Amino acid sequence: MRVEGEVSNYKRYEASGHRYFSLKDDGAQVRVVLFPRERAEHLREIRDGQTVIVTGSLGCSRRGGSTRSMPGRGGAGVGNLLLELERRKRRFAEEGLFDAARKRPLPRSPGGSGS
Fold it and tell me: Is the pLDDT of residue 2 over 60?
């Protein structure tokens, strides 16, 4: 099976060598685990926000399915979700929404006066 999506929540565990991440698009999300025996050297470059094509098998277990291979350049790029997030950050910054002068202390309790 081949799935294209944007990498999200990428985690690499050095002790086991396992890599976990999700592939997302506008309507769905697939959780992926990449086992050490199945990875290729070019995967050191994987990061959140990349668009990739994953070839693997679908399996059911407590943690999800497994991936057999992931081409280094197959569909690689920046995903739409990350692009939209970056666009919104720029817009909010231009509007001054991140300015320190706008910041206020959080109340002590929800709906409270902070005292």
Answer: yes
Q: Is the Cβ–Cβ distance between 4 and 51 less than 8 Å? A: yes
**Which CATH number goes with the domain that contains 34?**
2.40.50.140
Q: Is the pLDDT of residue 74 over 50?
A: no
What's the mean per-residue pLDDT of the chain? 78
Range of the domain at 39: 2-94
Distance of CA 42 to the CA centre of its chain: 18
102 lies in some domain:
no
Our CA angle for 52, 54, 55, nearest 5°, is: 155
**Distance, C-alpha 105 to centroid of its chain:** 30
